[in-house]
Design a protein that fits this description.
This protein is α+β, with helices and mostly antiparallel strands and 385 residues long. The protein contains eleven helices and ten strands. The strands form three sheets. It has a four-stranded mixed β-sheet. Strands 2-3-7-6 form a four-stranded antiparallel β-sheet, with no helix packed on it.
Amino acid sequence: MIGDQRHSDIRDGVRALCADFPAKYFREVDERRAYPEEFVTALTKAGWLAALIPQEYGGSGLGVGEASVIMEEINRCGGNAGACHGQLYNMGTLLRHGSAEQKAEWLPLIATGELRLQSMAVTEPSAGTQTTAITTMATRRGDRYIVNGQKVWTSRLLHSDLMILLARTTPIPQVRKKSEGLSTFLVDLRQSIGRGMTIRPIANMVNHETFEVFFENLEIPAANLIGREGQGFHQVLDGLNAERAIIAAECIGDGYWFIDKVARYASERVVFGRPIGANQGVQFPIAQALIEVEAANLMRWRACELFDAGMPCGTEANMAKYLAAKASWEAGEACLQFHGGFGFAAEYDVERKFRETRLYQVAPISTNLILAHVAEHVLGLPRSF
């Protein structure tokens, strides 16, 4: 098999589970615009979604590198890790910044699957990726915070019990730096939806459950503040760097899936008396796609190693996500093109995976924002925004 085989024990375990949920399962879920509940439940019971939770709380105590392998293999097996990847990268904020009491209360229940932490509410309609410009306010009143505002592109709310919320606790005019005055909270969705929190689904191109969220005097216990008030921006960055490294791995899984699929097809599909894979016009784009996926994979591992060592990794996580999203898209383009009309037929799964992997050039951070980050923070060029 082509591709990286490190952590083979994890890969073998995830592949064995995914064998019970073949591409046909995900195709039918996609057709119904449904959530792969049975698959996520099986992953949870097998302990894969508790990978990052320390052993003393019932998890495996693994690093982001190992967690990324789990998500990579789901996509390489023909699934869509987007249904459950939030639990892994959202965990970073709680794991690194939560109090001992919060961890003791929540982590064992997440590890067993009694609770799911699948959602993070950060983005707002007027702010987009300019996180420091968010205006949702959480105002302290006694032993509670009162939240008012709006979020958008908040995913998996109907299949999550808990959500990480980023909100302002100090208005922008009262802070020295825009990144100050933001705080993170753990929101119990079971007590919030319909009680100060209203959600509205956003129909979209991919079968990805996501919502607009409206807060109107939502009450959150002050005990659910994560870490220190006003430090939320940097706390959320931990989760976002993990998110980018993990999604890079998912794109790498997609890339390998596309390459495996098209290489087999090109070897078997005979036109004008010869396999289409005998033509360099077919060979070269597939070979190029493999080279780019392999290169992206190396940056993915660099980002994961830095993250797990507790070192700064924002640039590497962004680079990994950029390279992997680009490589998977180009592999998908070759796969779709060389399948011809069959690439558009749902039964081949190419069009579904093609739609799914396209998302990652836009979200969770667009390619242009990554380029701007590298230009400013690595090359030292003037800030462009």
